[in-house]
Amino acid sequence: MMTLPPLRFPFSTRLLPACAAAFLVTWSANANAASPARADHSLKLEIGRALEKGLDWLASRQDAESGAWGDERYPALSALPICALLGAPSRAPDAPLDESLLRGLEFLLSRQREDGGIYGNGLATYNTALSLLALTLAAQPEYDLPILQARKFLIAQQADFDTRGTPDNPFDGGIGYGGTYTHSDLSNTHLALEALYYSRNLLSDSAAAPGKEGNPQLDWDAAIAFVQRCQHSAASNDQEWSSDDPENRGGFIYYPGDSKAGSQRLEDGRTVPRSYGSMSYAGLLSFIYARMDRGDPRVLAARDWLQKNYSVEENPGMGHEGLYYYYHTMAKALTILDVKELKLAGGDTVDWRSDLATQLFDLQDSDGFWVNETGRWWEKDPILVTAYALLTLEHIYHSL
Asked: Which of 253, 350, 264 is nearest to 307 (CA)?
């Protein structure tokens, strides 16, 4: 079982214990071999310059009056920039919050509702999970109660359709957007698991503190049962569509039976949903947050699919759709696991950190921002995409 650290600095591997660093040592024969120090230093300097320019651009886009970024109906669009600004290499983990960050965090708190969720116009889970992560990362005692209330909200979103007379519903255990969008999906589930995992240490503090009595707990076993129902694996997925065909085995889809990458017809005549990159990293991250054993067949199968389909040019299976979300999930997973190199299907190894950072250098606008010309999942919004890109580079920077 893997234990991750409490969140103090954006997912920095320097905070990880040895057991986490060893979690996926089998990603390649050289997974823990250090890259040449001079090359790492050079890459770190280049990343630092890209981050400085991008963070300056992002800071300039904060609304002076409200403290928000982007559309104020969606607090997640402010939470992601806050996380990126908190992770700036120039900022010490214990540095006081500056006025800009305080105004941004106060904006998030202003959107917290009586049910504990932090949201405006729908997408309650997505907005609450990312806002909870930002508040946890800020590490201020006055945010403890709002964090606990947001945790309760997320836990309450976990699906249990058995109570409706449909036992063994494939969506049980997962978490969806909330509201009228009731069924679970892997994206919302992994974001909720992430926020709940990193905020969990608050529960170990004084149980007598206000708001800490009777805190509910997520059913982690049920959550993983849902996640594995999103993975192509005949041994662990009880859904008829699941397949061990070479192109899909070990990869993940959006929710049981549905892939945003479409479907394909197999030689046996079946039509199955296609695995794709961003959801495969989201699935792997879900396993990480559940502290599954590194040798678990589900983890190994995810590893194999991701190595076989490695790319920094596209979101495998989706082209440029959801590209920066893919970069973000990729960097989170591989830096948490302290993976230096990936061993590809042909036997070659690749320095994914250098590849991905160089790709982002090329994609950065001269003004400092990033944007995806393919607009699916809001990726034509430069604030959202720039926050994804900055977080991606910060993960890499802190791993060097």
From this structure: 350
Residue 165 is predicted with a pLDDT of 57
Using alpha carbons, list the distances in angstroms from residue 383 to 41, 52, 81: 29, 15, 8
- Interval 21-72: pLDDT, tens: 333 333 333 444 444 566 689 999 999 999 999 999 999 999 999 999 999 9
Alpha carbon of residue 205 to chain centroid: 26
Strand partners, 24: none
CA–centroid distance for 94 within its chain: 23
Neighbours of 179 (CB within 10 A): 13
Q: In this structure, are residues 309 and 369 in contact, taking their beta carbons and an 8 Å threshold?
A: no
Distance CA 309, CA 101 (A): 38
Say which residue the tokens 């190199």 belong to.
341
State the Cα–Cα distance between residues 372 and 58, nearest whole angstrom.
Answer: 16
Mean pLDDT by 10 residues, the chain (400 residues): 44 34 36 56 96 98 97 97 96 90 98 97 95 96 95 94 69 87 91 96 56 76 96 93 94 96 91 97 97 92 95 97 98 92 88 97 98 94 98 96
For 11, phi then psi, to 5°, come to 60, 30
Q: How far is CA 88 from CA 34, 47, 59, in A?
A: 24, 11, 11
Residue 119 has a CB neighbour count (10 Å cut-off) of: 25
Residue 359, Cα to own-chain centre: how many angstroms? 20
Spatial distance between the Cα atoms of 194 and 282, rounded to a whole number of angstroms: 10
Helices (H), the chain: 18-21, 37-60, 76-86, 99-110, 124-138, 144-156, 186-198, 220-228, 277-289, 297-308, 323-336, 352-363, 382-399
Q: How far from each other are the two terminal CA atoms of the chain, in whole angstroms?
A: 25
Output the six-digit token pair for 121.
């116009």
How many other β-carbons are positioned within 10 Å of the β-carbon of residue 273?
26
